[in-house]
Amino acid sequence: MALQAAALAEADAPAESSAGPARLWLRLLRSPLTLSGVIIVLIFVVLAIIAPWISPYDPSAVSDTTLAGPSAAHWLGTTQNGQDVLSQMLYGARASMFVGIGAAVLTTVLSVVVGVTAGYVGGIGDEVLSLLANVFLVLPSLPLTIILAAYLPHSGSLGIILVITVTGWAWGARVLRAQTLSLRKRDFVEAARATGEPTWRIIVKDILPNQVAVIAASFLGTVTAAILTQASLAFLGLADVTQWSWGTILYWAQTGSALLTGAWWWFVPAGLAIAVLGTALSLVNFGIDEFINPRLRQAGIGTKKAQRGQVRAGRPRGRRHRTAPVPRPAPAPFTQDSTDVVLQVRDLRVEYVSEGGRTRAVSDVSFALRRGEVLGIAGESGSGKSTLAYAITRLHKPPAEIARGEIRYTAPDGRGVDVLAMDEAELREFRWEELSIVFQSAMHALNPVLRIGAQIEDVIVAHRPRMAAPERAARVLELLDIVGIPADRASSYPHELSGGMRQRAMIAIGLALDPEIIVMDEPTTALDVVIQRQIIEKIMELKDRLGFSVVFITHDLSLLIELSDTIAVMYGGKVVEMAPAEDFYRHPQHPYSQGLLGSFPTLGGPKRELTGIVGSPPDLRRLPSGCAFRTRCPHAFDACATKVPELLQVGEPGARGTLAACLLHSVPETTTNELATGETR
């Protein structure tokens, strides 16, 4: 399907030269099969419209020329009553096309409304709408169609359209609901929600464009099915047989024993017209699938080698070496009244609620983020890093729930805001204005069917609705220039960019409204080391230039040590060590941190054996008693099995040193929250 090919593709794709809508439509018609389908459908539509003016006879008029074969006077012969078959075919096209298109429109609209609403909104509405769709799915459609048609024998085409709509909408709604359920959890939908876009705009701009191929296939398939259903009902005599349609022609041909008398010209044209139109609609569907899916358009733009050349030609050619960094002041000590603290998290606990109980994914985490600071968060998969990021941005969804804690943002003017107390309207204003997020996978976080420039502009539209279009366009180009993407790439789709460009585009979206904080959830995942280096250099350059703070989440400790001011290591949902980056690198205090650092080879100095960490991360639903790391710790002793270590100061109290949650460093005078927030007893 187009949705799967466009939305799930991961590999860097060759670039396509920018093309306007007119050129894209022309490309749609370049396929001989698609062009043939479009021409055939248009011929049928035109003939149906002009039938009264070009029909040589009244389709119901009888004559003495009965059961005559095709001739100059009657191109398709006559019936047993001397009626002209060609005239009946032309008038029949009007009724059949009207039923097919009318039923397809109503059925598709009902399917989209029910399916997308149920899939995106969820909750009790989803359950009710899904139950309704399931009821219609299990009902036998053919008997139901026959019964309904029998009660509406003289309602004409409108009655047939109603019958087909009632019996045919549930399948399309079910498919669209399933697609919406998968899309609403995608990162680009989360990103749109995070930027403050209203629900209707997310559905229209992000959900529906990714389902156009499915909707188009459903519509064209319903046209064919409706024409066949109408013909079947008419053939069985369940429709108004006085109204000419292709099905009516077949009904009278069967009644007049056309097959037994050898009058093939009476029934073959109607059957052939239905078959040809169905084939043409299928060809059009294939063409629409290719046209809507940006990935499939690549088939018509040349060889792979030529495409790769276009990608290289579009990449920025600036210096690859890091420029001299702007000197940064040493981090200030933890103090509660420090004016440079922009985000303060205290005792944050996030739990996943299920029928089996509550599972703590983030347990009593506290930290302070300062202006212009990079706070690095590291840990193995399942340690709670991404859950913490989503909690900070209030993007978590059920079953995730913030059980307790405080997240306090301090604006540049000194005004403090409780993030957890914000309602939806306040969150919409807060996100991207003050705090933005760069998601883990740019290919998933970028909408595959929208151009890069349009996705950046969406953020601006959501928060600056009164900004004029020329100003928005200028801002988009400015942002692309800031992150080092050529201006002509604004019209490119995500798959047309390299992995590094896609990630820089995500950074541009995060910078669109000049936020004070950017949360970066593993922004260099799946990138090679050269591209990683470019991304990190760009992040540091922009941070020093624009002055925002960064919460940087990654598995890569060596990366964090290079770019972070402070590093927090998480294990089992808790912060087990927090320290200035240099101190962490030279003197890690927690055995888990030592194991992580021992897993990375050094580029210089004497060779050493990589030690790593034995075992696997714990299951958060069944954490070991006492210290969660004790089953993997080489220094564990008896007390570790019964006592949960607190995050305590290691070194001089009151100074900004290292905090470690290990019984090897037990300093009862200071508690974790007092140290993390600057309070002392």
From TrEMBL:
NCBIfam families: oligo_HPY. Residues 314-323 have a biased composition (Basic residues). It holds the Pfam family OppC_N. Residues 97-285 form the ABC transmembrane type-1 domain. Gene3D superfamilies: MetI-like, P-loop containing nucleotide triphosphate hydrolases. It is found in: Cell membrane; Membrane. The keyword Transport applies. It comes from Actinacidiphila acididurans. Keywords: ATP-binding, Cell membrane, Membrane, Nucleotide-binding, Transmembrane, Transmembrane helix, Transport. The chain crosses the membrane at residues 33-54, 97-121, 128-152, 158-176, 212-236, 264-288. Belongs to the binding-protein-dependent transport system permease family. It comes from the Bacteria. This is Dipeptide/oligopeptide/nickel ABC transporter permease/ATP-binding protein. Residues 307-333 are annotated as: Disordered. It is a multi-pass membrane protein; Peripheral membrane protein. The lineage of its organism: Bacteria, Bacillati, Actinomycetota, Actinomycetes, Kitasatosporales. Residues 343-597 form the ABC transporter domain. The keyword Membrane applies.
